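Q: Got a minute? One more chain.
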Amino acid sequence: QIRIFRPPSYSGTMALILLVSLIGGILYLKRNNLEFLYNKTSWGVFSVVLILAMTSGQMWNHIRGAQLMYRNPQDGQWHYIHGSTQSQFIVESYIVIFLNAAIVGGMFMLSEVGENKKDSGKKKFYALCGLAVVAIFFSFMLSIFKVKHRGYPYRLGTLCVCVCVCVCVRAFLCEDRSLY
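A: Always. Here it is, folded:
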């Protein structure tokens, strides 16, 4: 009988010590001016980036050891989206994080329409651009979902058309134009 002795890995402990040291060093150097901790924009960007990274599936790729992409041996085509719901490619998670980031950008455009824009034409332009970005990239996300779930009833553009019709009816037929 041979006993196998594996020495403990201290890489996780060292990474934690390094992270705590970096945060402590930054707080020590900036001890006279801690206003950056109260900056809502910095915290918002940090939160959105963290959420996008966590929801894209990168940890699943790391745990399962997923392929970057797949080349079909019959026709030689590269596949970026895995056809199964039980697996995904690394490129697929990058595509998902890009689409989610574009949707967040469109939502940001919609939420910031009223800020610092005195011209109603500019407000309407930013609102419609934000709406178009959200609708287009969300419909791309739906099409990826349809590839993974074959029986999904919606197509590319279905949601986009519905949202655009609702907003156009709201914007051009209603008397209350407080959004613009």
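A: Strands lie at 70-71, 78-79.
Q: Perfect, thanks.
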